[in-house]
Amino acid sequence: MAEKLFTEEQKGRIVEAIKEAELNTSGEIRVHIEKSCPEDVMDRAAFMFEKLKMHKTELRNGVLFYLAVKDRKFAILGDAGINIKVPEGFWDNIKETMVNHFKEGDFAGGLTKGVLMSGEQLKNHFPYQTDDVNELSDDISFGK
């Protein structure tokens, strides 16, 4: 079960990173972790994006960090509202940083850093609003 791949402390650090990142942006960030990915990683991330109802945000500015630990696959998927505003390669620097952590076996550290970096980068396009509503759960979701 994917939930057992991380300690409570690691899960707490990831959730805190989501909360901190969302203080920089009106974007909504989710993390979904599975043990393995049964298909193309982008297809699976898109499936989970919809299953988690991330496409239902008002500004279509949800971001999913998808990780399949055993298969060593991950994806960062931004919703349509983000993709029309950000330049080509927007996620590349974040992905590189995460891969460096993942190569060391530090999955929690990679996710934490990636989430924080995304909040920083998204604030230019989707700044935090004082009346911002947290539209999606900050909790990590887990697959099998």
UniProtKB/TrEMBL annotation:
Q: Which domain of life is it from?
A: Bacteria
Question: What Pfam families does its record include?
Answer: TPM_phosphatase
Positions of the TPM domain: 3-117
PANTHER family the UniProt entry points to: BLL7265 PROTEIN, UPF0603 PROTEIN YGCG
Protein name in UniProt: TPM domain-containing protein
Q: Which species does the entry assign this protein to?
A: Marinilabilia rubra
